[in-house]
Amino acid sequence: MRRGLNSAIIPPMKTARDWHLQDDGLIECDLCPRHCRIADGNSGVCLVRQRVGNELIAASYGLICGLAVDPIEKKPFYHFLPGSGTLSFGTVGCNLLCKFCQNHHLSRAAKLEGSRTTSKEIADAAIRYRCESVAFTYNEPVIFLEFAVDTAKVCHAHGLKTVAVTNGWIEPGPRKEFYAHMDAANVDLKAFTDRFYQKLCGATIQPVLDTLVYIQKETDVHLEVTTLLIPGQNDSPAEIDAMTKWAVTNLGTDVPWHFSAYRPTREWSEAPPTPLESLLQAKSIAELNGLQHVHLGNVMSRNLPRA
Predict the structure, then answer these.
(1) pLDDT tens track for 234-284
(2) Which residues of 267-302 are buried (b: 16+ CB within 10 A; e: fewer)?
(3) Domains in the chain, ordered, with CATH?
(4) Strands 222-229 and 184-188, sheet pairing
(5) Predicted TM-score (pTM) of this structure
């Protein structure tokens, strides 16, 4: 797949959107709720929004660190272009600090390493490999908003759809711009307590809930939601009950929901793998509360009970 892209291309330095220079000389990034205050030569927590002089630079613009043709269901999208292929790509960095991250080597990469490419090359590759869409995935696409938006424009001009796999932790202004260029989004709702978000993600839950409501009620973007169930952390029946009742009230009964199994990683193994029973219990609770499209992920289909 990499042979289809020109790694020799080095895009010019790209000024980031959504920031301002403060009176004390620090630059404040306005992209996500963290609002990093950045001195010259430093970057935000995301690692890729870097200050150079009196500008904030989108340092990962055009950077490719993961690229593959996937079935759309792998993202996961079960109700958007089913049976089609999507060209998946990502860069490095993330605005969350999830201890259990399944792509830790990308989200907390020590260096900005990878191939450089252009939006047109990505669209051309998607067409060449007969994909119907391009997916911004592997790491958090919000932090490379500039490249994602530019690429989405080129993809749409070539008849391709665009999909985002995202944590949903973004401020209202850039959120409006980002989703104006997306056709579908799968948002990770990582738990239903602020305690979980603060302890395990270094973040807060409310902006994610706001993003879910915004997508569902104020855009035409197709929405699906994924929750990774981690034993002892976010998988209690009470939490699943509260989460899915909130979903039905605020998003409706039609929003597809994916409960996915956690697997320990080298970086974080403080919980055992998610048992099948926990996934089945979550599915049952969600369906009893009215969700009509509940799916289970990271589990072999042969282990699921037959309908």
Answers:
(1) 999 999 999 999 999 999 999 999 999 999 988 899 999 999 999 999 999
(2) ebeebeebeeebbebbbebbeebebeebbbbbbeee
(3) 63-303 (3.20.20.70)
(4) parallel
(5) 0.93
